[in-house]
Structures are given as structure tokens and as C-alpha cells.
């Protein structure tokens, strides 16, 4: 038995080393016990804070009971990968220029789903080379997985008051991915919290979506409104969105722990198509073919051209009035999409009020 334990300790160390070699910033291992998180998750769903994200509720307890999602699972290998591109224009500078489009920093490069899934598969292949065939399944924000809870239990960091994972050595600018496995690996010590009395993320949230520490009402979150919500954006929230046309990073930008964030070493996460410094008017000119060509391989591709135009129309409505902005909106006043037309009409009304 001792020899088996030694072998598992060695394998766990190898897995972490292989993970670093594959570009992950850190790898940890935990068990499947999420009993402490389950009541909090169920309460959050019961309060309706998930909004239109029906997938958050429809899988029942599989999200909080990994072995019910993947039978035979007894361990989760959790990994993080940094995504902050070193050459991206300063986020706050972009948000201060209302004619520019702010796009969440995670979406400036290639789709992280594909990148992480590929690397996690490579890590699984390395494990198989060492131990032979074993049971596993790879996840990257692609199934009912409580990734932050699992990452905290695996020692990768703690859940911040904005509900994202925070690391003392890497802030929060990273992606998470998991390997569910039947290997009885030794587990790591969970991380303790280090937010203290800080409320910077709650204070800065443009829509006050962080209704209390560690609890977000997604229905007010700009990331939800611009990415997950497929229908009309509530009018009361549109002015608060500013020029954020895909996601929102405010809570991360203000977090003091991001002084320690690591720049990505991955070429896939470098800025594409100048999306870190591009005007709303230019993006609004893209027809569907252009959108599909430029956004191919990007996380943005998933929301589709219509929703993209809806978001940009809101941004243009919040921009400083100029002939270029008005002309761009007028060109889509009769857009084929009712959703786009509605938001364009609202945007034009905002500028009419300023005249």
C-alpha cells in the first residue's frame, strides 16, 4: 500500500509539472465533496439570480455532485491559464473614450474553450502514457461544473467578493479548466480567503450587480447583459453599460490583487484584429459576413452578429454625440432585426436629448 501511495504522490507531482510545461500557471487536485457549496448554489438559483441562464438550473445536482455528472469520478484536477495580453491597450483608457468599444480582455484573442480543452486533453494523454487507460473527462466552462469552488478546494486561490477566483500570485486574469478522473490522487490543501475588508469590486460595479460580498445578481451584470442575454437589454441598465460591448472587467481592474497578475505566454491570447483599440462606428459597419470572418475562432463568435449589433448600438447611444455616431446609427435604423432596430432607436433618442 505504501508503494502505491508513493506512486500516486509521484504521479500527482508529475501532473502538476506537465501542466506547467503545457502552459498552465498552476495545477491542483481536490476531491468531489461540494456539500458546503451546494446550499449556496441552490439558494442563488432559487432567488432567480441566474436570469435567463436556464442551463445553470436544469442539471439539478450534477453541478454540485461531480460523481453524478461523470460516474466514477473521485478526483478533480483543476488548472488555471493566464490570459492577459501584454500588448493590449490600457482598459481604463479605452473606457474613458466613449467612441471606442471596450471588449473584455479575455475575448481579445482566440476562444479559450478550444485552447484550454486542447491543453487539458494533452495533459490527460500524458497521464495515460504513464498509468495506462483511466477514466476521465475534460471540462472548460462547457458543462455543469462549479469551477471556482473546485479550484479553491484544489488550492489555486479563493473566491473573491466579486465571485471570481483570486490568487495571491496571479490575481484573477486567468481561465479555469478541469479534468474529472477516477484516479485516487492525493489532494491539495484548499486556499484561504484574503479579501479582508476590501469592497473595491462592490463599489465600482457599474450596475451594482454585486449585491453583497460573494453574491452576484447576474440579471444586472454587464457580462450577462452583453453575452448571455439574448433579448432586449433593460432600458434602465443601458446607460450604465457605457461603451462595454462584450463583457465587463471593472471588478477585476479595481481589485488590488491584480497587481500580481501574470501576463500570458500563450500566442493564442494575443490581441486579434485590433479589438483592444477600435471604434464603435467601425464595428457597427461590419456586415454579418465580416463579423463571421473576423470573429471566427473567437469567443465573441458565439453571440452572433445580431446580438453584437445590439450591444454596439447601446455603446453608440452612450457615446459623445458626433456626426459619425449619428450617421452610423441612422444607417441601421431599418435593420432587418427588430432587436437591433429597437436599440438603435433608443440610441438615437439619447442623442436627440443632448441637442
UniProtKB/TrEMBL annotation:
The pathway noted for it is: tRNA modification; tRNA-queuosine biosynthesis
Q: Which organism is it from?
A: Methylobacillus methanolivorans
Q: Which PROSITE patterns match?
A: 4FE4S_FER_1, 4FE4S_FER_2
Q: What is this protein called?
A: Epoxyqueuosine reductase
Q: Which UniProt keywords apply?
A: 4Fe-4S, Cobalamin, Cobalt, Cytoplasm, Iron, Iron-sulfur, Metal-binding, Oxidoreductase, Queuosine biosynthesis, tRNA processing
**Subunit text:** Monomer.
Residues reported to bind [4Fe-4S] cluster 2: 205, 221, 248, 251
- So where's the catalytic machinery, residue-wise? 141
Amino acid at each position: 500500500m505504501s508503494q502505491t501511495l508513493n506512486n500516486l504522490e509521484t504521479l500527482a507531482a508529475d501532473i502538476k509539472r506537465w501542466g506547467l510545461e503545457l502552459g498552465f500557471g498552476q495545477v491542483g487536485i481536490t476531491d468531489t465533496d461540494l456539500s458546503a457549496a451546494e446550499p449556496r448554489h441552490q439558494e442563488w438559483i432559487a432567488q432567480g439570480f441566474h436570469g435567463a441562464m436556464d442551463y445553470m438550473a436544469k442539471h439539478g445536482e450534477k453541478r454540485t455532485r461531480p460523481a453524478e455528472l461523470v460516474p466514477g469520478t473521485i478526483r478533480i484536477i483543476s488548472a488555471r491559464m493566464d490570459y492577459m495580453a501584454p500588448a493590449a491597450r490600457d482598459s481604463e483608457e479605452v473606457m474613458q473614450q466613449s467612441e471606442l468599444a471596450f471588449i473584455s480582455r479575455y475575448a481579445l484573442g482566440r476562444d479559450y474553450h478550444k485552447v484550454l480543452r486542447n491543453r487539458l486533453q494533452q495533459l490527460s494523454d500524458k497521464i495515460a502514457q504513464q498509468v495506462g487507460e483511466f477514466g476521465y473527462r475534460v471540462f472548460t466552462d462547457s458543462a455543469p461544473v462549479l469551477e471556482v469552488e473546485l479550484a479553491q478546494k484544489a488550492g489555486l486561490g479563493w473566491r473573491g467578493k466579486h465571485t471570481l477566483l483570486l490568487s495571491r500570485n496571479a490575481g484573477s486574469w486567468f481561465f479555469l479548466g478541469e479534468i474529472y478522473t477516477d484516479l485516487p490522487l492525493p489532494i491539495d490543501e484548499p486556499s484561504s480567503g484574503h479579501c479582508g475588508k476590501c469592497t473595491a469590486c462592490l463599489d465600482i460595479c457599474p450596475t451594482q450587480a454585486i449585491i453583497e460580498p460573494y453574491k452576484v445578481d447576474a440579471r444586472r451584470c454587464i457580462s450577462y447583459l452583453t453575452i448571455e442575454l439574448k433579448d432586449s437589454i433593460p432600458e434602465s441598465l443601458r446607460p450604465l453599460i457605457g461603451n462595454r460591448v462584450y463583457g465587463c472587467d471593472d471588478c477585476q481592474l479595481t481589485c488590488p490583487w491584480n497587481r500580481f497578475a501574470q501576463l500570458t505566454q500563450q500566442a493564442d491570447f494575443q490581441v486579434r484584429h485590433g479589438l483592444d483599440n477600435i471604434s464603435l462606428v467601425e464595428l457597427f459597419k461590419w456586415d454579418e459576413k465580416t463579423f463571421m470572418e473576423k470573429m471566427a475562432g473567437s469567443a465573441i463568435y458565439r453571440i452572433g452578429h445580431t446580438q453584437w449589433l445590439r450591444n454596439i448600438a447601446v455603446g453608440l447611444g452612450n457615446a459623445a454625440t458626433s456626426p459619425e455616431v449619428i450617421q452610423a446609427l441612422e444607417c441601421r435604423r431599418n435593420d432587418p432585426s427588430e432587436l437591433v432596430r429597437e436599440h438603435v432607436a433608443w440610441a438615437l433618442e439619447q442623442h436627440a436629448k443632448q441637442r
